[in-house]
Amino acid sequence: MSDPLGILIVDDEPDFARGIQRLLGKQFPQEHIRTAQSGAEALEIMAAEPCGVLLTDLSMPGMDGVALLRLVLEDWPRASVLLLTAYGTVQTAVEALKSGAYDFLTKPVEPDALFTSVQRGLERSRLLGENARLRGLLARQEGAPELIGESPAMRRLKEATAAVAESDYTVLVRGESGTGKELVSRTIHRLSPRNDRPMLTVNCPAIPEQLLESELFGHVKGAFTGADRDRKGIFVNARGGTLLLDEIGDIPLSLQTKLLRCLQEGEIRPVGSSRNVRVDVRIIASTNQDLEARIRDKSFREDLYYRLNVLSVTVPPLRERTEDIPLLSRHFLARACAEMNRSCKEIAPEALAYLAGREWPGNVRELQNFIRRLAVFCSREVIDMAHVRLAEGQEATCRDDPNCPGPYKEAKEKVIDSFTRAYVRDLLESTGGNISEAARISGLSRVALQKILKRLELDAESFRRGNA
Fold it and tell me: How many CB atoms neighbour CB 293 within 10 A?
């Protein structure tokens, strides 16, 4: 039901209704005041635009005031219904109030009594509307079980998440690495009116700059080498739903202008196309970077920042919610045991106390990985400090081992760089250092291939001599 507003006067005598309308219009100039001459007309008006106060005559041909009262309160329970009659008796008033009327006035109407009754009716309807909104907000907050924690910082985060989910505005989710920004973003989508539509994610730094534009906006056939067919971008594929631009701080400046236009105009232009495409998607952007500092050093557009930062949610680091660590630890342990098809384990009180006092620079992600190690190394039902020390030893070994994968982003960059170097060397060896032939075989432009060679510090000439 829409929030109630305005006043509706229902009376089969048009002159009387207009007279009441003039009186109330002077007393309540901020309210939208309408009139209707029958119960049926009043219901049509309510269906189009519900009101806060309905003032109706009791005796009307066809549908009388009590019948109208019951129908209105059935569909619009927050409306305050006031009954008017020239035949006011105590019995009639009692029956009307039992049917749900907020108040009962007799004709001729005393202006002061009318103003008081209408004012109270409006206040009641607004209060009921605010209570309903807060109940809905609380239900949304409680409907986010994936956000684990009861600390003040987490309660504030849950409230903020539920609040921003109600609107369709762009949201900027900020927080350190490992705090759970993507989880918060997915919770916003799940609690939003768009939850029956897809939520898609673009990891901005994981996609090469020359491919990111096509990934976001799509391309038409022939737009570049290898574009052998039209391709819809993720903005189109997420139509009607939500698009998460993960780590938005790493998006290249060349694309920031195009993204800004998309946010301003609600349309995109696929690569190689001459026409724009309308899109309907809610944007959530996340970052662990100081965007204000990026603005100062001219690596992030200030106008794009304000377009993204319509609503903002900050995910607290684990050091600001240490009281949640025992709860998180139990949750992650239960999940890890389920993943390994093992019986559920418990953590001894002294081990929980130690975990709560330990530093977690990697935040929730680091804690979760540590709990997984505990689940692996503990063969007993209870995890004690001995198991914690063992897991810490494994963690230190991994930190000191140069062959340990390390952070995902760094490991991925190493793998990509190694593959690219090996691929280019094989390519140049097979073509005898012929750049044009190598570009044709690889599907890269000659300029792009030369840039790769320069970055890898490889000289095509050396492959012609066979001494690479």
Answer: 11
Under 8 Å between Cβ of 267 and 279: yes
Beta pairing partners, 173: 286, 313
Range of the domain at 44: 7-134
Joined tokens for residue 291: 């965007």
Is residue 1, in this structure, part of any structural domain at all?
no
340 DSSP 8-state letter: T
The model's pLDDT over 224-268, given as tens digits with 9 standing for 90+, comes to 877 888 888 899 999 899 999 999 999 989 899 999 989 999 999
Residue 388: which CATH number? 1.10.8.60
Question: pLDDT of 180-210, one tens digit each?
Answer: 999 999 999 999 989 889 999 999 888 887 7
Whether residue 150 contacts residue 327, with contact meaning beta carbons closer than 8 Å, is answered with yes
Contact yes or no for 283/245 (Cβ under 8 A): yes
Q: What's the whole-model pTM score?
A: 0.58
Closest by Cα among 283, 275, 272 to 238: 283
- pLDDT number for residue 462: 81
What's CA 453's distance to the chain center, in Å? 42
Paired tokens of 64: 């009388």
Mean pLDDT of 18-23: 92
Q: Which is it for strands 7-10 and 33-36: parallel, antiparallel or unpaired? A: parallel
Q: Tell me the three-class secondary structure of 73-110, residue by residue.
A: HHHCCCCEEEEEECCCCHHHHHHHHHCCCCEEEECCCC
Mean pLDDT score, 76-83: 91
Q: First CA to last CA across the chain, in angstroms?
A: 74
Of the residues 293, 314, 335, the one at which a domain ends: 314
Same domain, 18 and 105: yes
CA distance 297 to 289: 13
Assess if residue 142 is contained within a domain. no
Distance from C-alpha of 447 to C-alpha of 435, rounded to nearest angstrom:
10
Q: Pairing state of beta strands 267-268 and 277-278?
A: antiparallel
Written as six digits, the tokens of 107 are 């004709």
- pLDDT on residue 3: 45
- Give the mean model confidence (pLDDT) for residues 285-308: 94
What type of residue sits at position 313? V
